[in-house]
Amino acid sequence: MSQSNLEQVMEEYHRTLDAFMKGDPEPTKKLWSRRDDVTLANPFGLPARGWDRVEETMERAASLIREGEFTSYERISGYSTADLGYNVEIQRTRAKVGGSDETTPISLRVTTVFRREDGEWRIVHRHADPITAPMPMESIAEK
Q1: What is the C-alpha separation between 71 and 103, in angstroms, rounded?
Q2: What percent of the chain has pLDDT over 90?
Q3: How confident is the model at residue 4 (pLDDT cuts 50, 70, 90)?
Q4: Could you tell me the residue range of the domain that residue 103 belongs to?
Q5: Mean pLDDT of the region 81-89
Q6: Could you give the CA distance from residue 35 to residue 42 in angstroms, rounded to a whole number?
Q7: Which residues contact 10 (CB under 8 A, 6 or more apart)?
Q8: Angle at 52 between CA 120 and CA 131, to 5 degrees
Q9: Which of 23, 70, 88, 113 could be joined to 76 by an S-S link, Cβ 3.0–4.6 Å?
Q10: 45 part of a folded domain
C-alpha cells in the first residue's frame, strides 16, 4: 500500500465526519479496525479499548450530536511507513450538541493512527480533545 492510498483513506475519513455530525457513526465505524487493541479517547468520556467498547463509545458520542457538518481541517503533521501512519490535525465542525437547539462551532485537536490490516488501512486509535489554543500551566492541575 502506498502513502497516497493512506491519503485517500484520510480523505474518506473526513467525508464520514459529516454523517457523524448528523448523529450517524456507521460510515466512520467502517474505517476502524476490529482488533482488540483499538483505542478511542474522545471529549465525552474515558478512553475505550477493544472494538466493542470503541463502538459503544462512538455510538454514544454520535447520539449527543445532531444537524451538524464537518467544515474543515488543518493538518499539523503526519507520517506513514508501509504499515503504520498517523495524522495530527485540528478538525472543525458545527452541530447541535446535547439538548441545545443552537448550532455550535466545535474545534478538536485530533491524533489518528492508521494501521494496514489485510491490505487495507484501518483506524486503530483516535484521540480528540478541545484544546486548540495555548492554555496556562495551572489549567492542567487537578483540583
Answers
A1: 13
A2: 82
A3: low
A4: 3-126
A5: 96
A6: 19
A7: 78, 87, 112, 114
A8: 80
A9: 88
A10: yes
Write down the pLDDT at residue 45: 83
- Per residue in 97-107, pLDDT (tens digit) is 989 999 999 99
Nearest to 117 by CA among 29, 30, 35: 35
pLDDT for 91? 95
Asked if pLDDT for residue 51 goes beyond 60, the answer is: yes
Residue 132 is assigned to a structural domain of this protein: no
CATH code assigned at 58: 3.10.450.50
Asked if the structure places residue 73 within a domain, the reply is yes
34-43 burial string, b = 16+ CB within 10 Å, else e?
eeeebbbbbe
- Quick check: is 47 in a domain? yes
Q: What is the pTM of this model?
A: 0.90
